[in-house]
Design brief:
Elements (H helix, E strand, L loop, with lengths): L12 E10 L2 E2 L2 H14 L8 H15 L4 E10 L2 E10 L5 H6 L1 E7 L12 H14 L3 E5 L4 E5 L3 E6 L2 E4 L9 H13 L3 E3 L2 E2 L8 E6 L3 E8 L2 E2 L5 H23 L3
Length: 260
């Protein structure tokens, strides 16, 4: 798999999705396509590919490249007067077993997405966050808005746990994560209470655990957020992660079984 020059992604406006690839197939392709279309409609842009055409091209690309550990990026690029879409594999950073077991470090970062309902490339914000993460040797940044509320991660959704209740931001304030969507469904099946409420950054010490969900990490605990330490070992979290992977396997089988 050769490196792809994606500089055109940063020209004009780019709406995108990142999908995890397993056995040459993307997880939850239908959900990602639905969110992609939602972003397009929200930004008043033109759809550049049908569901079937995009699925066909993903299968062809996967057959050619045969990626083992990679994520797939779908980009709809609008650079007047030209519009086009790109499919390419990007290097994935999956957590290690040790990170799942011991947790990772997070930082608070004061920033707010201007349009949280759409997955749009914000290059300058991304570079600023990456610089802070590198300087503090942290895994993820938790975004804090002007009301001092934690909304989401820079590339994830965030959950807090207190007294066996999960707290997460209301969907209208964040980008609706595909992983988050399915984890919430599994929580409902398991009878785990969910409270849709942003946590104030000044009150994070009141919570027992902090988790991030996303395409690459699935469900990953934080050991620290800034200088606050949290509980990592939680049997319910591991159970949810395992239940999620069973559901993900079914989505892979569905994608593979559908003929081009």
């Amino acid at each position: 798999m050769e490196d792809f020059d994606n500089k055109m992604v940063y020209e004009g406006e780019s709406i995108y999705e990142v999908l995890r690839m397993v056995r040459g197939a993307p997880l939850f392709f239908s959900d990602h396509y639905e969110r992609l279309i939602g972003s397009i409609l929200n930004r008043k842009r033109t759809n550049l590919s049908t569901f079937n055409n995009l699925r066909r091209n993903i299968k062809v690309l996967a057959e050619i490249e045969k990626p083992e550990k990679a994520n797939l990026k779908i980009v709809f690029n609008y650079n007047n007067p030209n519009s086009d879409y790109l499919l390419y594999f990007i290097k994935a950073r999956y957590p290690s077993e040790l990170q799942y077991k011991e947790g990772v470090k997070g930082i608070l970062f004061r920033a707010e997405r201007t349009d949280p309902a759409s997955k749009v490339v914000h290059h300058e914000l991304k570079l600023a966050i990456e610089a802070r993460l590198a300087s503090e040797k942290a895994y993820e940044a938790l975004l804090v808005n002007d009301k001092n509320l934690i909304t989401e991660g820079s590339r994830s959704n965030i959950f807090f746990i207190k007294n066996k209740t999960l707290y997460t931001a209301p969907n209208n304030l964040v980008l609706g994560g595909i992983t988050k969507k399915h984890l919430i469904g599994l929580c409902n099946e398991a009878g785990i209470e969910i409270c849709y409420q942003c946590v104030n950054a000044a009150e994070i010490r009141d919570y027992d655990s902090v988790l991030m969900s996303g395409t690459s990490p699935i469900l990953l605990p934080f050991k620290y957020v800034d200088d606050c330490e949290f509980t990592v070992e939680d049997g319910a979290v591991e159970k949810l992660r395992n239940m999620f992977m069973l559901k993900a396997d079914q989505s892979i089988n569905d994608f593979i079984s559908e003929k081009i």
